[in-house]
From TrEMBL:
Coiled coil: none annotated. The lineage of its organism: unclassified sequences, metagenomes, ecological metagenomes. It comes from marine sediment metagenome. This is Cytochrome c domain-containing protein. Residues 19-116, 126-213 form the Cytochrome c domain. InterPro entries: Cyt_c-like_dom (IPR009056), Cyt_c-like_dom_sf (IPR036909), Cytochrome_c_Oxidase_Subunit (IPR050597). GO terms for molecular function: electron transfer activity; heme binding; metal ion binding.
């Protein structure tokens, strides 16, 4: 199974390298069967219940807002995300999304709606008291309880895996996310990240976020 997943991921990278300008032609040529296959492709890395896979850095999609997933898929499809050749997970997502049409994205979102939030028993080390103080600036957009605020384009943070949160914060900090002019929400996050150091304060913030309750769990 692991070999099959690795092979699939290699195919996605290859698709990105050879597709190039023909991506839009592929989108318009999607068949109904291919749109259904797109849903299955997501489960290859993110799991049949959306719990994700830290080994291959595939985040959990369970309980994730459909509006946020749509925005990220559209960003990957348009090359707003996932075009840095030194970051493999981004390349894979860009390759996978570049051949999706709007109806395929709709089908993916419909399938993901059934993935309820899964309780995660993780425990990243950090000073949660300090993290709570630092999180106050995050709460303006993401909410005091980490449930997110759609009106400002800020997704929920509660219930997300600690490794995923740390990874995304580092990507914003380093410029792998939030530097494209067509990603205003990402640019805002990158600006916020400049006030946090990578090794200390980030871990404290994530440790505090991990104390937040998930609305639903199983």
């Amino acid at each position: 199974m692991f070999i099959n997943k690795c092979f699939t991921r290699l195919l996605l990278i290859t698709a990105f390298l050879v597709a190039g300008a023909s991506a839009q032609a592929q989108v318009s040529a999607l068949t109904d069967s291919q749109r259904s296959d797109a849903v299955y492709t997501c489960t290859t890395c993110h799991g049949s219940d959306g719990r994700g896979n830290p080994v291959i850095r595939a985040p959990g999609l369970d309980g994730r807002e459909s509006w946020y997933i749509r925005r990220q898929l559209e960003n990957f499809r348009a090359g707003v995300r996932g075009t840095q050749k030194s970051y493999t997970p981004g390349l894979e997502m860009h390759a996978a999304a570049s051949v999706l049409d709007d109806e395929a994205i709709d089908r993916i979102l419909n399938a993901i709606e059934d993935w309820r939030p899964i309780a995660r028993h993780e425990g990243i080390d950090g000073d949660t008291a300090r993290g709570q103080q630092l999180y106050n600036s995050c709460a303006t957009c993401h909410g005091l309880d980490g449930q997110g605020i759609e009106a400002v384009g800020a997704p929920s943070l509660a219930g997300r895996s600690d490794w995923y949160l740390m990874n995304q914060l580092r990507l914003f900090k380093s410029g792998y996310r939030g530097t494209h002019p067509d990603d205003p929400a990402g640019e805002q996050m990158r600006a916020m990240m400049q006030n946090l150091d990578v090794d200390g304060t980030l871990q404290d913030v994530v440790a505090y976020i991990r104390t937040m309750d998930v609305t639903e769990s199983e």
